Amino acid sequence: MLFWLGILIGVIFAWFAVQRKFYETWAILFNLVISIYLAVFLESVIVDFVPSAGEPPYGNMLTIAATATGIFLVTQGLCFILFTSQFSIPLPKILDIIGSGFLGLFAGFLAWSFVVLLISISPISQDKIVKQIGLPTHFQQTALPYLSWWCNMVNYIVSDKAGEHTTEYVVGELLKSASPKKPAKAEKQPAAPKPAEPNLPKPAAAEPNRPAEPKPAEPNRPAVPAEPNRI
Questions:
Q1: Residue at 138 is within a domain
Q2: What's the structural domain count of the chain?
Q3: How far apart are CA 32 and CA 161, in angstroms?
Q4: In the chain, fewer beta carbons within 10 Å around the N or the C end?
Q5: pLDDT digit string (tens) for 54-104?
């Protein structure tokens, strides 16, 4: 469902892009990619300078959202003042319609992927309803690869060490900071020693049964004669 919602947002952007023509749409897409790239990769730098900007639970999300919004407004304003409002490049009508439509579709899905990223690095992603609608799966399978493709492309152009810090790595660190920390396990205390039992006398061992000793026979005594009857 979330994938088709992203496509719907892309279609809305495509319709808007057709009204703006190819030249202006290309500038919007370029400024959107640059603002998202800088917001994602500068988050750790901003937090180092302003530690309170990364305080949980919504610090990282608000920092990235504010940075991306500010950079996009500045670049889009400069582009409008210096280029789009000053020059108009005539292009074939088919390019203005089809080309700007595709660029608008790409820009819309990129904006949607960025919104999904902001939700994923916030405590909202731990809500049961959010998990039931499949936001974590949609982010890992669709939003993150698409967002990473654009940001990695810019990173390979502007960075000498693009292979060390890819978009996947930076986003992974943001997800770790947003995931709830497990409570530390209490250290097991050693069991108290049992008190020593007092020494008890050992019961005497039962003696083996011995045969009874025969008593010595008494010697035969002489019989006493009976006294005579007296008159």
A1: yes
A2: 1
A3: 23
A4: C
A5: 777 788 899 999 999 999 999 999 999 988 888 778 888 888 889 999 999
